[in-house]
Structure formats: structure tokens, C-alpha cells
Amino acid sequence: MATPWIGLTPALNQQETHLMAHESFFTALTHYGAQPVLLPLTDCEETLSACVERLDGFILTGGSDLDPLCYGEVCRPWCGAIIPRRDEMELKLCRMLLAAGKPVLGICRGFQVMNVTLGGSLYQDLEKELETDEPLAHRQHQPDHFPAHSIALTPSSRLHHILGHETRVNSLHHQGIKRLGQGFICTAVSPDGLCEGAELTGAPFFVGVQWHPERMWQQDAAQRKLFEAFLAACAPDQKA
Ligand code: MN
Would residue 108 show up in a list of annotated catalytic residues for this protein? Predict the structure, then answer.
């Protein structure tokens, strides 16, 4: 099988001098024989289009909060830090990936980017805005790989096929999916009713998850299957 080349969207450090992605992405992808590539932080159409054309799959990575303006809301005091350049790049890239039918795995913020691209909205802070009688600690205090809460998967969905009926996941987020974007189907739910995973039917692989599989794949066989399924969809040999 030829090596799939996977583009990773970059985070920006606070001083805005360095582009970054969590090292666990590089470790996981190289473990599976994929070639990770950190993308530049740009909304230049030409550059993004060259990346979309040349790379086999994309991971929209985690990071800071999206500007609520992107989903038609004002910024509440409980919304976190925003990096407009990153919002512009990722929303543009995500639209291009949808149009090109490229495999995409969205993680945490990346999942939220997918949802907003499809016209959905976000809770700016779950503790403040999610109405539930059974609040969950979505910002865990345990090590990153620790499976903090359960999720239930929708039978016959892609995520169910990969992860099974129920599994436990880590939880390192304070925002979440409020209104689902058009065509996005929620297929993973936490016990407080929050959408923790969604997929677009008909797309080769357009799956977003609220948890961080890249920080638990070494401990958790189910999360290894998620990377395997994504990379199988990215394998150049499988292209029609
Ligand atoms: Mn969670």
C-alpha cells in the first residue's frame, strides 16, 4: 500500500511566532506508515488548493475557540481565546475539502470547524450553556489519555462500525456542538446529551470527534481503529 500523505492544520503559539501541532499526531501517523505534513497558516487560495490536490487526507486539529461570528453569534464573556487567521484558513480549507471529496478527520476544535462549515453552531461554554440535569466534566483533570466519560454510538453509523456500541473517551474541551450543520449526522453522544461525534453520509470520510484519539491510541484499541479507518480511506490505492 502506498504511503498516504496527511495534512495537519497548524495551531499558533501565543506570541504568534511558531506553528504547531501536538506531537502525538506525528507519532500516531508515522506508526501507521502515513506521512504527516504540517500545513502553513494561510488562507491563500492557491496554496490551499495545491495542498488539497497533493495530499491524500487531512486532520483538522484541536486548539482555541472559533470566533462566534462564524456561526452568527456574539462573543460571550465565557468564550475563550480566538485566532481569526486560523478560523479563516480552516473554514476555507474545510469547504475546499468537502468540494474535493477528500477524507477529513476533525478532532475537538477541528470537529467544531466541520460543523460550522456546514452551517451549525457551538456552545461557547458547556458549563454555562448546555442545559442538562447530569453535567459531565468535559474538561478532565486526569492525564490526557484517560477515558473520562462514555459515549454511545448510533447503530449502523460509520463510528459505530469503527468503535462499537459504546466506548469511553478522553475529554479536553469546554465548547461543543449546539446546532448540527446541514447533512452532519450525530452518531456519538455523551450521557449529558452532547454530540461527541458526527459524520457526513455519502462523503468518502468526513468524520468529526470531540475527543482526542491521538492522545489515547497507544492505550485504547478502539481509538487505534479510528486511525486505521481514516487512513484506509486516505490510502491512494483505494482511489477510484
Ligand atoms: Mn467530552
Answer: yes
- Catalytic residue selected from 22, 186, 212, 234: 212
Residue 96, CA atoms < 13 Å, CB-side half-sphere: 22
pLDDT at 240 exceeding the cut of 60: no
Q: Does residue 212 carry a catalytic annotation?
A: yes
Q: Cα–Cα–Cα angle for 115, 87, 41, nearest 5°?
A: 125
Neighbours of ion ligand 1 (CB under 5 A): 138, 171
pLDDT band at 1 (very low <50, low <70, confident <90, very high): low
| Secondary structure, 3-state, the chain | CCCCEEEECCEECCCCCCEECCHHHHHHHHHCCCEEEECCCCCCHHHHHHHHHHCCEEEECCCCECCHHHHCCCCCCCCCCECHHHHHHHHHHHHHHHHHCCCEEEECHHHHHHHHHCCCCEECCHHHHCCCCCCCCCECCCCCCCCCEEEEECCCCHHHHHHCCEEEECCECCCEECCCCCCEEEEEECCCCCEEEEEECCCCCEEEECCCHHHCCCCCHHHHHHHHHHHHHHCHHHCC
177-203 confidence digits (pLDDT tens): 999 999 999 999 999 999 999 999 989
- Specify the pTM: 0.97
